[in-house]
Amino acid sequence: MARRRVLWIFPALLILVGLSIYPLLYSLKVSFVTIQGDWGISNYTRILRDHLLHVSLIQTFIYVTGALTIELILGLFLALLVDSLGRGKYFFRGGFLAPMLLPPVVAAIVWRLIYNPQFGVLNSTLKLFGVATEKLTWTSGEGSAMASVIFVDIWEWTPFMFLLLSAGLQSIPVEPCEAARMDGASSFKVLKDIILPLLKPTLFLAILLRAMDLLRIFDQIWILTQGGPGLATETVSLYIYRTAFRFFNFGYAASMSFVCLILVSLFAKSLFRMLKMSVV
Amino acid sequence: MKRTVTKWGSYIIAGSGLLISLAPLYWLLTISLKTEIDQFASPPLWFHFTPTFVHFQEAFGVNEFGKYLFNSCLVATSSTLIALVLGIPAAYSLTRLKWPKNQAEKIGFWILSNRFLPPIITIVPLFLMMRNLGLLDSPVALIIVYVGFNLPFVIWMMQTFIREIPPELDEAARVDGDSYFGALIRIILPLASPGIAATAIFCLIIAWNEFLLALVLTQTESSMTLPIGIASQVTQYEIRWGIMSAAGVVATVPVLIFSLFVQKYLVRGLSMGAVKG
Q1: Cβ(B174)–Cβ(B186) under 8 Å?
Q2: A80-139, pLDDT tens digit by residue?
Q3: Is B271's CB within 8 Å of A99's CB?
Q4: φ, ψ for residue A40 (rounded to 5)?
Q5: How far apart are CA A141 and CA A260, in angstroms?
């Protein structure tokens, strides 16, 4: 019996260990190799002084919290809106989901086509309405790049929030809401006192899943701006990638990965604790 | 009166939301079907242009996209099959076989935590490992890492599907003389087949869309997948909008079709089985 249960799970565990634990240990070893090829902790001391890394950490934080907040609010709003529609509910639901179903690379090139300051459809459409578009540079302007990149994320992933929260709304019993409405409670009060508390587990789950995905953001930014202009949209993933595969400093990239792993685990743990508390 | 106004207001807001969602997709499609002059026309041509398939021919006939497409199909299907073959017995073991208390749950959570590991953290060691094994720029490397990527997902999804099958059914099969393996083949697999199909489709989509690992582990057309091929059109000095959009459309269509098949399981798949839609 004992042999059987282990035997059946053993190949899967072996693969997972080989592709996660072993690489992590290997990476730990590499992280102590300096670019000159010696052993030492200079990679870790450099992390403390590296201004570029600090900038990209802050920008990752801005990106994650900005996109997460707006996607959550917008997704909840759309879920409530579509839930209240009578006819055409399913039509709208299907249409709203479309951006999420695109391969992320394709979503990014779509927006490159749209944002292009000279030939993009966004500026040429705005021109039709008499807007002066010379200064609207979107992803290629230092001031607007971050917001433009976040907007693409919102466009693509609000559907995810919408989908999960719609499912959550459907699992809420109707009776308490109706009873409260009969007693004369306003829609806002019903939302705040009845719907949101019942929706809490789904809300936390959606936040957890989306946050973990946002933290690994790479493809969209890589294709839209490559972290530029200047450093305007540089995030930690891009910085690690560049360090390893453009400057071939594997040791430093590995040590940054480790610090990231610790930060991400701490973040995930506290989110998870909140999630568990909300369900109990 | 007030109710009608709110109702119409809701439809107008929902309609504009729909427009923002879908217009960019429509625009991609038009760019892939337009001649170069029409692509850059100002004011933009939303409807009045003569469609041409020249970019599709150019991408898949003349350029390397045919090869990228083949690589994408090869890598996605093989990694999905391997992940299912390894993952289903593991899920069965965790849900149906007896484990000392809490152990199955602990192993399950460890498996899940692999899923949350951002790929950027393991990308350096995986690259060095594949280089040492001489697998850089080979589809085999991608198949291996995608199996690792999809395995936690398969195990979690299949656990939820197996739990829904009444345990009496496979117990009865075993009383009738079937081994555990026989019970898995004759009872669990047929009953869980819709779940297996949904899980497989999610794995296919995940592998099909994956970008970062493919960017690092592939270098030439002998292993580059469709997303990498599309992205490489951007980083070149001159962006070839037509070819890029045509390839983008081709990369999107299978995902949309597959998503239709799993729409019933979409919520479940996206929440790793935690929410049942």
Answers
A1: no
A2: 998 888 788 888 888 899 899 899 999 999 998 888 877 788 888 888 887 777 777 888
A3: no
A4: 165, 175
A5: 28
Closest CA–CA distance from residue B134 to any residue of chain A (Å): 16
Round to whole Å and give the CA distance between B82 and A28.
Answer: 29
Helix (H) or strand (E) holding B123: helix B119-132
Contact B121 A27 (CB under 8 A): yes
Cα separations (Å) of A142 from A133, A135, A280? 16, 12, 46
Give me chain A's average pLDDT, please: 87
- Provide the 10 A C-beta neighbour count for residue B257: 10
Query: Helix axis angle, A145-170 relative to A89-101, nearest 10°?
Result: 140
Cβ separation B118–A102 shorter than 8 A: no
Higher pLDDT pick, B42 / B232: B232
Please list the residues that pair with A39 across neighbouring strands.
Answer: A33
CA distance B13 to chain A (A): 9
Q: What's the CA gap between A179 and A189, in Å, rounded?
A: 13
**Residue A86 phi/psi, 5° resolution?**
-85, -80
How far CA A82 is from CA of A75, A122, A167, B10, B70, in Å, comes to 10, 27, 12, 8, 40
Question: At B220, which amino acid appears?
Answer: T
A27 with B267: Cβ contact below 8 A: no
The pTM for the full model equals 0.89
Calculated CA dihedral for residues B115, B121, B123, B124, nearest 10 degrees = -150
Asked if A193 reaches chain B (Cβ–Cβ under 8 Å), the answer is no
Q: Which amino acid is at B100?
A: P
**Domain boundaries B57-270, corresponding CATH code:** 1.10.3720.10
Q: Within 13 Å, how many C-alpha atoms sit on residue A257's CB side?
A: 31
In this structure, are residues A197 and A111 in contact, taking their beta carbons and an 8 Å threshold?
no
- φ and ψ at A75, to 5 degrees? -65, -40
Percent of chain B with pLDDT over 90: 42
Distance (Å, rounded) from C-alpha A128 to C-alpha B115? 47
* Residues B70/B74/A214/A256 CA torsion (nearest 10 deg): -100
Q: What confidence score (pLDDT) does residue A277 get?
A: 76
pLDDT of residue B170: 82
Amino acid at A92: F
Residue whose C-alpha is closest to residue A159's, from A221, A204, A224, A101: A101
d(CA B118, CA A90): 34
A188 touches B: beta carbon within 8 Å: no
Residue A244 sits at the chain B interface (C-beta within 8 Å): yes
Residue span(s) of chain B under CATH 1.10.3720.10 come to: 57-270
| Domains by residue range for chain A, with CATH | 62-235 (1.10.3720.10)
